[in-house]
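Hey, resending since the last one bounced:
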Amino acid sequence: MLTGIMATGCSDKIPQLGKNSIDEVINAMTLEEKVHLMIGTGGDLDSEIPSAVVGKTENIVPGAAGTTSAIPRLGIPSIVLADGPAGLRIDPTREYDTSTYYATHFPIGTLLASTWNVDLVERIGNAIGNEVLEYGVDVLLAPGMNIQRHPLNGRNFEYYSEDPLVSGKIAAAYVRGIQKNDVGTSVKHFVANNQETNRTAVDAIISQRALREIYLKGFEIAVKEAKPWTLMTSYNLVNGTYAPENKELVTNVLRDEWGYDGTVMTDWYGGKSAPAIVSAGNDMIQPGYGKQYDDIIEAVSNGTLPMEDIDRNVRRILELIVKTPRFNGYKYSSNPDLKAHAEITRQSATEGMILLKNDNNALPFDKNVKNIALFGVTSYDFIPGGTGSGNVNGSYTVSLLDGLENAGYKSDSALKETYEKYIAEEKARPVPNDTSAFAKWLPPTRPEELNFDAEQIKAFASVNDAAIITIGRYSGEFVDRTTDNFNLSPKMSALIANVSKIFRKNGKPVVVILNVGGAMETASWKMKPDAILLAWQGGQEGGNSVADILSGKVNPSGKLTMTFPLKVTDPYSSIDFPIDVAVDVANFLDFDRKRENVRNVDYTLYEDDIYVGYRYFDTFEVPVSYPFGYGLSYTTFRYTNGSIDFDGKNYIVKVDVSNSGKVAGKEVVQLYVASPDAKKLNQPKKVLKAFAKTKHLNPGESETVTMKVAAEDLAFFDEESSAWVVSPGEYGFEIGASSQDIRATLKTDVKGSERKVNDLLRPKQSINILRNK
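The structure tokens again:
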């Protein structure tokens, strides 16, 4: 039971935050006040168990995820924390208030990363940060930047890449943009939140090398380059210890090695033991409930939790609070420029969409294309983003139908009527009444696809100039995707085959649009249409963005930040991923449930080690549908005059990129490094070490692209010596348009080096031993 509720009012003799030093404020706080500050106010503080609370902050910003406790007598206000990352998640309407509080639904994280444009991502972050500021929120709980280890991870849509460099650089740009508004971010989920199945209890068993090179590296880049105000630990265990309770992770690596001096918070109800969370250096426990309060008080009383640990964490929280708009008296308007931000999201979405196929220059559409037959439920019911905490309450979504009509195209009226009637009927069907706390957060069920016989398709082909087929997939937190979600349904496969055959026979182009949140199976059907556009989920302006590309108003320049495998089981990680495992999300917060020791549910062995994504496919020459870094353009680019120099600290690679086609466009240039004796040292064939995006190049125009690689970034992690080791020898610096399209290789000799670090995060047993049990 809670005790020691905070006093109200203040006295001139009582220290005040901002007027007195933080030391003086801490010394004036009671233990009860300190503990209240460390745990949030969103939960039921009289409860012995956690309960779902997201959005229970109605007294400050309705719909925000949580708040901190105010201590008025010491001048300490509550601050507000709200979900992201595709925009600010708050309630759009409020009781007894005729105003609206819609936020802009920006593109999903995967699309932002697919731009490979850190300057653009920073501008998007700046726009999101403005809405955070003007709606009275202090910290946005974003970005999510876990590695896309397997295509079926339900939360991949929030994340950036299978590669830690891309993840780190994009996250750093996003954080810089948001924090330009003097509001905070919370980089998450630290670390190895790579599956949604049993995410609050699964033990991710990972080698030190894979942790250092793959799963921690992106966070390290974001922390060092962007200095996020806060960082959020993940739910899962890491090598036997819950992430928020893992001192080696939260203190020794994050703070001691990387120099992080911000605030660390749990994910909502993350961790099991509140005293252990505090002791590990996880400063803030969100959203807080009664047992956690009591446990911390008891631990201090019996001497198992030193007061020094409490004061350390309280100090970091106070250092966060004094930076916030709310503490500094900012008068937020609740009126950001949503119209300007809508234009930003429309423009940014086009740059992250990826042209996967374009036979016979089917795109952009010829000027003679006026009438279009739109097939697929998603053509009329476009998906702006994922579900769960990553969703955004935007005021509208532009469908593909809307976007095409806005661009001057006409859709087949009979087809439109058929689909809209069908969708309305399907959405009107009664659904099982799921009263669980998390039902509203789960991805909804999409209507099955319609099929048309050959005569119907022929009739559509006779009166239309082109056909578009849209494939849509929801994804979201709490559940991983299924193989059925990854593969096409038989009805959709038949629709693509039949429409492509008949329209193409009549000399009319067929385009497939992928309105999805992650990789999909494409190998079995990609030869059938003329063109494939991976549109991802482009936010509220998605339909307009797609139309801008189809019409040629914008030349696509996005490239894949993950590999599209031939089959869902092709990634090395498939042997250690819960493929099609059914779980009861109602047990999400039951931390005391019995662990059954089920592989890939209660524990996951990361047997793929460092061989994630292209590191596996390219090294072991496993065929793929589309490789990492791949993406087409309406123009072509030529790479010439590659050079490499060393300034004593960095390897500086330059290459001239020329637009050799007939349309203006941008190119993503990728720099991979191949180390000597890669096989002997168990290293990937090549690893991405830098990338850059050109400016908008007109036909015949060139740009000299410069990329830098620090000498120390050529290192691999050697577990035996607990050191980052650069092997001496001749390295290949490979300049490419994708991981499998290398345009130039530059050779240079590299001196060896070694930098020792602490021997941390070692699995309790060898993964090889565990594998054989």
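The longest strand covers residues 637-646.

Sorry for the duplicate.
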